[in-house]
Amino acid sequence: MSDIPLTTSVAGVPEAAAPRQPPALTTGPAAWLRANLFSSWLNTAVTLVLGYFIVRYAISFVDWAFINAIWSVENNQTQACRALKASADPGACWAVITEKHRFILFGTYPYEEHWRPAIVCLLFTGLYIVSAMRRFWRWELAIIWAVTLITIGILMWGGVFGLSYVPQERWGGLPITLILATFGLAFAFPLAILVALGRRSSMPAIRVLCIAYVELIRGVPLISLLFMASVMFPLFLPEGLNIDKLLRAQVAVILFAGAYLAEVVRGGLQALPKGQYEAAEALGLSYWQKTGFIILPQALRLVIPPLVNTFIGFFKDTSLVLIIGIFDLLTAGKTAIVEPAWQGFGVEVYIAISVIYFIYCFAMSRYSQNLEAELNRHRVR
Amino acid sequence: MSQTATDPRHLRTPPKRQLRLSWADERVRAIVWQVLIVGAVIGVIWWLVRNTQHNLEVRRIATGFGFLQREAGLPIGEALIEYTPASTYLRALTVGVLNTLKVAVIGIVLATIFGTLIGIARLSRNWLLSKIAAVYVELIRDVPLLLQLLFWYTILQSLPGPRQALNPAAGVFLSNRGLKLPFLDWQPAHSWALLAFVVGCVATWLFAKAMRRRQMQDGQPRRIWPAALGFMLGLPLVVWLAGGAPTAIDWPELRGFNFRGGMTVTPEYFALLIGLTTYTAGFIAEIVRAGILAVPHGQWEAAQALGLRSGTVLRQIVLPQALRVIVPPMTSQYLNLTKNSSLAVAIGYQDIVSIANTTLNQTGQAIEGIAIIMLVYLSISLSISFFMNWYNSRIALVER
């Protein structure tokens, strides 16, 4: 071993390799930037162009929304706002929100009683949060809903426990939006389950009725149903019987939502393997036992994410009652800028209302995504 | 196959049971339930109809569609066909239907293009681009469409007047009176060229079909694009040249307090189009993204391993599979856009809902007015879903 010289050199092979460069970084911010923003000349160009526009518009937006903005004015004196709007360096007039936020949120509800609709909004929000938590997914949830909804009714109407009576015509703003959405869902959901079951029923007459209902409602816009509720509904009822406009709109919203939710539920019923139906029948369960204990718990679980997405669509659609003149959040915002002093500040008001809708819808959409991931965890390997 | 058909075991039918008149027989129960429910539904409808008849008598409202022939007397800002306030209600409603179709068709085309671009941008490897697309989708989808329409309309209305109109490009003016664009001074030759283009498209389609059939017979691919170019561009060009090649362009000009000439896009239509397009594009982007993600990556790799060019891979391998996932939800988005165009009534664009609403307020014919609205939307919805179902069955996976 020892007689083998250590310096065996073959022609053409370098004696000692030159020290090699370390490989390019694959971790760390520099590598991340290179991989995600500057991986090719095209990518770099896109990044630079987008970056330029973002910086430019972000600066002018911050200028408009914060730096130049006017946050409050005294006694509806909006001249400063108007001057700012017409100037070369415009700014937002958030004073309209400062001045009108109570009106936008609660409409014409008596001013000194505004704490009542405020609590109602909190109760609704709490109800949504509780319903979203899986540990509350049991039959007691129905009791929580019933109790909360009754409390909300007492708070809004008053007339008992020393609360002054507030007629329904004076309700408005966010509580109306939440009432339309919540009661709409609470009644549309059972209706939807029945219709979905009916559409898959073996009884032809019931199947035809359910198909006709779903297709008819889904074929027409919600507005036409709302018009029907506001214009045609009084003609349908016997003389002397008058139903409040809000309730009529609520019925239209329930019928509308019922058809859409029914299709989602039907999707779940169809996705369930046939073996589940057959096994339940083989156990000798009756139709309602089979449906209640075997089919629905599985089918509904399958369609929770699309259900939440339908809820979001539906929460947004309640804003359409503006067209028949019901005083929901959007109508309140639109009315707030009718007053001559505040005309022309629509953009600020609409942005503020968008933020409220966005908070509710974004929370629901995030929740639905998380839930979907959680429910599918057993499928992901 | 023939064995199983003659196999006596397969010919056996379950024994016929006698129908017993007892609650224990499920067929009897089914009949009773159906009779009860149908009876209840008919009863309720009958009750509503009787109430309605009585109420109409009390209020002295005559039913029927006779009012359609009366003079409407309602002014309509923009109409695709000739219309004056002296025209009949039928004419006014037709104008409304055409206005609805005008915004729905253009909205569908724009939303598809815009939504596809955003969907692809969201899949981009450029972090900034994909994040911007994601933020756009979240923002647009979580705010009610009606609110967005009001927002766009407010912005368009707060633009400066015609005298201080924004002028982003030569001949393009944006003011609170709407968007003004230069447009061809329309001559009959243009109409003929347009017709020639349609004929060219049909000819291309027939030609491609014939070539495909020939390819199926002998396996030789044939070039389609030279003929297609000739049909779709050459034919209209020849017709246009034969018509005298008119090139006059109608430029909008400021005369007094408003613009003259050119093509006008009213603020109402513009706001509705922007709102519907951006809103629906947010949903279409998600559908396109899901469709592309649904094609497994192995499909790309397998096609590349076969030596196909990347354009061919996209057209022949990936797109057909992605479309299968995309088309059904896209159909419902098209339907949604059409139905959402009814929100026009909130910003004063005169679509069918707006005109029917005015009609029913003027004549008191509530039932007929709403029936017309529903009928129009039902027929539009049914036509779109019929067409998309036909398209879907064409591209659907053919299984054994």
TrEMBL record, chain A:
<feature type="transmembrane region" description="Helical">
    <location>
        <begin position="41"/>
        <end position="59"/>
    </location>
</feature>
<keyword id="KW-0813">Transport</keyword>
<dbReference type="InterPro" id="IPR000515">
    <property type="entry name" value="MetI-like"/>
</dbReference>
<keyword id="KW-0472">Membrane</keyword>
<feature type="transmembrane region" description="Helical">
    <location>
        <begin position="249"/>
        <end position="269"/>
    </location>
</feature>
<dbReference type="Pfam" id="PF00528">
    <property type="entry name" value="BPD_transp_1"/>
</dbReference>
<keyword id="KW-1003">Cell membrane</keyword>
<feature type="transmembrane region" description="Helical">
    <location>
        <begin position="209"/>
        <end position="237"/>
    </location>
</feature>
<dbReference type="InterPro" id="IPR010065">
    <property type="entry name" value="AA_ABC_transptr_permease_3TM"/>
</dbReference>
<comment type="similarity">
    <text>Belongs to the binding-protein-dependent transport system permease family. HisMQ subfamily.</text>
</comment>
<feature type="transmembrane region" description="Helical">
    <location>
        <begin position="172"/>
        <end position="197"/>
    </location>
</feature>
<feature type="transmembrane region" description="Helical">
    <location>
        <begin position="349"/>
        <end position="367"/>
    </location>
</feature>
<dbReference type="InterPro" id="IPR035906">
    <property type="entry name" value="MetI-like_sf"/>
</dbReference>
<feature type="domain" description="ABC transmembrane type-1">
    <location>
        <begin position="174"/>
        <end position="368"/>
    </location>
</feature>
<keyword id="KW-1133">Transmembrane helix</keyword>
<protein>
    <submittedName>
        <fullName>Amino acid ABC transporter permease</fullName>
    </submittedName>
</protein>
<dbReference type="InterPro" id="IPR043429">
    <property type="entry name" value="ArtM/GltK/GlnP/TcyL/YhdX-like"/>
</dbReference>
<feature type="transmembrane region" description="Helical">
    <location>
        <begin position="114"/>
        <end position="130"/>
    </location>
</feature>
<feature type="transmembrane region" description="Helical">
    <location>
        <begin position="142"/>
        <end position="166"/>
    </location>
</feature>
<keyword id="KW-0812">Transmembrane</keyword>
From TrEMBL, chain B:
<protein>
    <submittedName>
        <fullName>Amino acid ABC transporter permease</fullName>
    </submittedName>
</protein>
<feature type="transmembrane region" description="Helical">
    <location>
        <begin position="229"/>
        <end position="249"/>
    </location>
</feature>
<dbReference type="InterPro" id="IPR010065">
    <property type="entry name" value="AA_ABC_transptr_permease_3TM"/>
</dbReference>
<feature type="transmembrane region" description="Helical">
    <location>
        <begin position="30"/>
        <end position="49"/>
    </location>
</feature>
<feature type="transmembrane region" description="Helical">
    <location>
        <begin position="370"/>
        <end position="391"/>
    </location>
</feature>
<keyword id="KW-0812">Transmembrane</keyword>
<dbReference type="InterPro" id="IPR035906">
    <property type="entry name" value="MetI-like_sf"/>
</dbReference>
<dbReference type="InterPro" id="IPR000515">
    <property type="entry name" value="MetI-like"/>
</dbReference>
<keyword id="KW-1133">Transmembrane helix</keyword>
<dbReference type="InterPro" id="IPR043429">
    <property type="entry name" value="ArtM/GltK/GlnP/TcyL/YhdX-like"/>
</dbReference>
<feature type="transmembrane region" description="Helical">
    <location>
        <begin position="269"/>
        <end position="288"/>
    </location>
</feature>
<keyword id="KW-0029">Amino-acid transport</keyword>
<feature type="domain" description="ABC transmembrane type-1">
    <location>
        <begin position="97"/>
        <end position="388"/>
    </location>
</feature>
<feature type="transmembrane region" description="Helical">
    <location>
        <begin position="189"/>
        <end position="208"/>
    </location>
</feature>
<feature type="transmembrane region" description="Helical">
    <location>
        <begin position="103"/>
        <end position="121"/>
    </location>
</feature>
<keyword id="KW-1003">Cell membrane</keyword>
<keyword id="KW-0472">Membrane</keyword>
<keyword id="KW-0813">Transport</keyword>
<comment type="similarity">
    <text>Belongs to the binding-protein-dependent transport system permease family. HisMQ subfamily.</text>
</comment>
<dbReference type="Pfam" id="PF00528">
    <property type="entry name" value="BPD_transp_1"/>
</dbReference>
